[in-house]
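Thread: "does anyone have the structure for this chain?"

Original post by V.I.:
We have the sequence but no experimental structure in hand. Need at least a predicted one for the grant figures.
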Amino acid sequence: MTKSALTWRNELETELKDNILSFWMEHTLDEEHGGFVGEIDNRMNIIEGAGKSLVLNARILWTFASAYRMYGNAEYLAMAGRAHTYLLQHFADAEHGGYYWMVDALGAPAERKKQIYGQAFAIYALSEYHHATGRQDALDQAVALFRLVEQYGYDRQYKGYIEALSEEWQMTDNLSLSSKDMNEKKSMNTHLHVLEGYTGLYRVWRTEELRARLAELIEVMLLHIIDKEDKHFHLFLDEQWEVKSDHISYGHDIEGSWLLVEAAEVLGDEELLYRVRKVALSMAEAALAEGIDADGGIWNEADHNGLLDKNKDWWPQAEAIVGFYNAYQLSGDPRFRDAAEAAWAFTDRYMVDHSLGEWFWAVDESLQPLAHAPKVSAWKCPYHNSRACFEMIARLNSNSKENLS
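Reply from O.Q.:
Generated one for you, tokens below.
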């Protein structure tokens, strides 16, 4: 039975405040070396000596800036301030600009390359910190980083963005985000999160130079990264946009469907928004038809021969909640609302760790949490799940199709 929007909104707000945000405030502060611990295992043991990633630090900054903007809680502001301070003191490259990919447990640079994905998350976080607090220094830092990405990471010949550059912003052969990723010049993932970062920046810095680049980036996504036939993202591409992988990431598909709409809405180009909405609905339809298990959870990856990974990771579940609800708002089709509600029910039952807090990394085919997957790590951050809550609380509050009385 479909629950009321008020009931659903209250469940999500409880999850956000009492589980996700409280977990990160209570368990992740590195009181010895500053900032936040680099890794915590599934049994809540801090992994001594674990490095600290730009992704983790930037996503903590974004999460708590967003929480402060929504609720005005001084504890959330303090968390955001801690993340901002650590970002500037340890990740910022004072000589060459931009932010290192990794620092060690003590805060010294460990991986100095300029991964454009990481720079995009720093832009996203700094823009949100400015949005929440009005701090001019955060906006200045976001704008300076945008200009560095445009100067060195933008492909002037073929458009789009190169995956990574060296510490000095020179070309490098070390391109991939992680050992799981292909070492190609361009990827869906980097472009999706540059889009996200630029959208966040455009909310607070509405200049023609950023507007033009955000519009071009949306066009690049539509032209090169979304398959025109099956409406899935191409995951890896070369410099000239030749596709290098036939894998399908259902979580990225449903995430991208709503992030593209958000970008076009913030941009305010009605013709482009019309096109994006059509594509977003097609992407959501494909994910619903192919990527959802009978239990309501969304699978990780497939290729054109079938599923490659029958585990269900935490972040695709979070994105499915928002992505399918976004499709419902665009179309009025109750199948999408049902899918969003089913994704939340699955998440609450299987992904949320109701004993130790936060969410499990993943559950296996038998719906058991992966025993050796971390609770906190370079990639296990509070951003996907907190953002799902922020988005859904706002959408359930404002959507005229829902009755909150």
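V.I.: this helps a lot. Residues 9 and 135 are 30 Å apart (CA to CA).
O.Q.: and The two ends are 18 Å apart (CA to CA).
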